[in-house]
Amino acid sequence: MDNALRRGGGRRLRCAPVITRLSHLFLRTLRDDPADAEVPSHKLLVRAGYVRRIAPGVYSWLPLGLKVLRKIEDVVREEMNGIGAQEISLPALLPRDPYETTNRWTEYGDALFRLQDRKGADYLLGPTHEELFALTVKGEYNSYKDLPVALYQIQTKYRDEERPRAGILRGREFIMKDSYSFDLDEDGLKASYNAHREAYQRIFDRLGVKYVIVAATSGAMGGSASEEFLADSPVGEDTYVICRESGYAANVEAVITPAPEAQPIEGRPEAVVHDTPHTPTIATLVEWANAAGIAEQYGRPVTAADTLKNVMVKLRHPDGKTEIVGIGIPGDREVDDKRLGASIEPAEVELLTEADFAANPFLVKGYIGPKALQENGIRYLVDPRVVTGTSWITGADSEGKHVVGLLAGRDFTPDGTIEAAEVRDGDPSPDGRGTLVSARGIEIGHIFQLGYKYTDAFEVDVLGENGKPVRLIMGSYGVGISRMVAVIAEQQHDEKGLRWPAEIAPFDVHVVIANKDEAARAGAEDVVSGLHARGMDVLFDDRTASPGVKFKDAELLGMPWVLVIGRGWAEGKVELRNRFTGEAEEIPADSAVETVVAKIRG
Ligand code: ATP
Ligand code: MG
């Protein structure tokens, strides 16, 4: 198929758009960056007149921005239809009831926009639609023969984000493609999930986005119950780690620490308690060890990695009960709160209070060791590096005392391992094929094997093949459509302006008249008509402004090709500029239309 047709040009040929003249286009470009803008995409999209701010996290789409948005929607729509998903559209204004049933009316907290109608009934503006899709399927289907089904919508969502940010990147009103799959069993769910995963890869590849797929939670390792698509970007709010050698990527929370080999215990020296006055910190302890001759025993200087740091936390379990837990991690690492939080979910972490220490006098601050914890029935969880036979310098449970040579598996037996220590650049990749480095990304998509949470809540059953009811199993999948406009602008710009990939550029080509000469003007009109007749979507700068102003605008607006009809016209030449490479070439005016069409169709 001809490229233009494949890119949605078919519609164009049937109903070619009118030629868009800059003299008439509803557009004002701005010379200065908006005062509230920090990231390049925000500055450029506002300066280039794509979007305008109405309130924090609430934006209007002007003609150029709306064209990009619609093109992204079209790509997403094509790929969703391609996997057999069917488009529907649910309201954004929703009654409270279904969200009460799943407890999300409360759980969503301050991020939910809640409102009341004139009769005092509660409503919300939908932040995501699992409830309503589950109810919709329940309402229509009642036989296993109807399944599987995948439904989607491209619709406006509302979230009262704590920090709306970077223009349309994190809005309070934004557009999402959300889809939901319903299957009879887990294998069906996996198939629906994989179809979405592949469709998302095709979408982001077509949009020219650089991205990685990361396991969202550690439960997802191998099984992949939830994955996020993160676009590479220094302004991203998500940190993830990547192994450049193998391509492994994961959210920091999902990284599983490779455990070293266990070591023999036979014949290892006894643990010895030492007086170590004034060594409540890892740094002071290491200094003591090197000064006290421990380094000689080790045959090398002692480092913080030889020490075992015992961090006390209080867990609040969902039933409201609290539990004090000890976490042992190598002394050269800090606890990463996000990793700890993900590991102990659904419990929550609290800090110990002075009262907790007073109630548990065996907890000697700065000198806590595994022994007292275990003797007093406190659960002791260790970093996966603390395997049997590893030797540690750690607290001896009394003021000013540490123990050297404490062997895991001999002198203490942990109650389990926990992923709580920070992940650092240079750590080995869990796949054993290189090392990890950290990177930043923007979440552009999320795919999630939800399971039965919503179908249980609403009892979404169909009659099975054997006449018994079957509860449906559900997946949910989101793409940030409006966010994608900002993400592409973020990845594809230079100091002069935007730089759209052809698939979603508002126009195929931007034609600039850079000459007052009447013949050139008339010639430009002919070239533009020629391009239009060939199905090209043309932005025509027919204004009387100076060439300098027009060139600057062309760079700011970011169409992939700029055709300049200027001084060379008299000699039968025009200039074709590639916004992507910055290259310019002179081409004969009489074959300009053919040359440009050929370039655009690649
Ligand atoms: P984030 O971590 O960025 O807040 P999320 O985990 O809340 O995202 P989901 O609920 O999975 O996101 O929503 C699906 C997709 O919708 C996200 O991958 C993202 O692309 C987009 N999205 C989410 N929140 C916003 C927002 N406030 N503004 C624009 N797009 C958003
Ligand atoms: Mg969010």
UniProtKB/TrEMBL annotation:
Superkingdom classification of source: Bacteria
Entries under InterPro entries matching the protein: aa-tRNA-synt_IIb, aa-tRNA-synth_II, aa-tRNA-synth_II/BPL/LPL, Anticodon-bd, Anticodon-bd_dom_sf, Pro-tRNA-ligase_IIa, Pro-tRNA-synth_IIa_bac-type, Pro-tRNA-Synthase_IIa_type1
Ranges where the Aminoacyl-transfer RNA synthetases class-II family profile domain occurs: 52-501
One BP term from GO: prolyl-tRNA aminoacylation
Keyword flag Ligase: yes
GO MF entries: aminoacyl-tRNA deacylase activity; ATP binding; proline-tRNA ligase activity
Cellular component terms (Gene Ontology): cytosol
EC number of this enzyme: 6.1.1.15
Pfam entry (one): tRNA-synt_2b
UniProt keyword Protein transport, yes or no: no
Keywords assigned by UniProt, alphabetized: Aminoacyl-tRNA synthetase, ATP-binding, Cytoplasm, Ligase, Nucleotide-binding, Protein biosynthesis
Function text: Catalyzes the attachment of proline to tRNA(Pro) in a two-step reaction: proline is first activated by ATP to form Pro-AMP and then transferred to the acceptor end of tRNA(Pro). As ProRS can inadvertently accommodate and process non-cognate amino acids such as alanine and cysteine, to avoid such errors it has two additional distinct editing activities against alanine. One activity is designated as 'pretransfer' editing and involves the tRNA(Pro)-independent hydrolysis of activated Ala-AMP.
Self-association state and partner proteins as the record states: Homodimer.
HAMAP family for this protein: Pro_tRNA_synth_type1 (MF_01569)
UniProt record similarity statement: Belongs to the class-II aminoacyl-tRNA synthetase family. ProS type 1 subfamily.
Protein name: Proline--tRNA ligase
Source organism of this protein record: Nocardia amikacinitolerans
